Amino acid sequence: MALAPHAVHRLYEYRKSISTKPFGARGKKLIRCPLCLLGAQFCTCSLRRQLTTQASFLLIMYNDEVIKPTNSGRLIADLIPDTYAFLWSRTEPAAEMLALLSNEHYQPFLVFPAQYANPGQTVLSQVPMATLANGKRPLLIMLDGSWREAIKMFRKSAYLQDLPILSFDPNTLATYALRKGSHDFQLGTAEVASLALAAMGEEANGKALTAWFDLFVESSLLGRNRRCREDILPISEFTDAFEAAYRAATLEL
Ligand SMILES: [Zn+2]
């Protein structure tokens, strides 16, 4: 049975409806699945599964990020049932988003590099699950855009200035990059979110999200014909890896 559309699917439809011109993404001749935005023949929607988690996510998305097929924030909403998504506005932040930030059932954490913290702003490397007041859920806030855009969103949003920051030390980032064999530490939004899940003690959920991200990247490259032949691993390697990671996350409960 197909899962219901999630917050990023709904925000995508909304953002498209207010757009005055069609979005000129690379590879626009490609016929895309309207949900995962991958080329129709590489659609991963039937593989999507929801994780069982204590985490809630709030995605604050820069301008047209939500309609970019390369956006990885949507992968968080794919797997994490309690995910919210809003467009960022410097002057008119969504009232619903502000209400969420002051909702007593949530403890917000801004997932962002410590180097940008204001003087006196709390910086953490782990989510202090044991000390969260009476059953509050962590609400992990992701600023979804390029780095430049994320920094702008942070600096120009008064409501983010006093929140505790969840930040990863260089060792954590290096270990993650090494394990994945990547050559730089520029992580996608979904990869940072998988580190945030690990920082809550949900390593297996983090690994499932990483595997979902890897499948997405590979499927995007195939859709854009950007893989040279000798480079190609069968896509089943990636779908199997995701399904194994998902099973492991389910077993760990
Ligand atoms: Zn799809």
How do you describe this structure in short?
Keywords: S-adenosyl-L-methionine, Transferase, tRNA processing. One of its GO terms (molecular function) is tRNA-uridine aminocarboxypropyltransferase activity. By secondary structure, the chain is an alpha/beta fold.
DSSP strand content: 5-15%
Give the N-to-C terminal Cα separation.
Answer: 23 Å
| Helical stretch tally | 8
Low-confidence stretches: none
Q: Identify the strand order in the major beta sheet.
A: 2-1-5-3-6-4
Largest beta-sheet characterization: 6 strands, parallel
Hetero ligands: zinc ion
Total E-strand runs:
6
Helix content: 25-40%
What are the secondary-structure elements, in order, as H or E? HEHEHEEEHEHHHH
Radius of gyration: 18 Å
Write down the overall mean pLDDT: 91
Structural class: alpha/beta
Name the assembly state.
single chain
Shape: globular
Relevant terms:
253 residues; alpha/beta; 8 helices; binds zinc ion
Characterization of this structure:
With 253 residues, this protein is α/β, with parallel strands linked by helices. The protein is built from eight helices and six strands; from the N terminus they run αβαβαβββαβαααα. It has helices at residues 7-17, 73-79, 95-101, 147-155, 170-180, 189-199, 203-223, 235-251, and strands at 56-61, 83-87, 106-111, 123-124, 137-144, 165-166. A six-stranded parallel beta sheet has the order 2-1-5-3-6-4, with helices on both faces. Strand 1, helix 2 (73-79) and strand 2 form a beta-alpha-beta unit. Helix 6 (189-199) runs antiparallel to helix 7 (203-223) and helix 7 packs antiparallel against helix 8 (235-251). The longest helix has 21 residues, at 203-223. The mean pLDDT is 91. Zinc ion (ZN) binds at residues 33, 35-36, 38, 43-45.
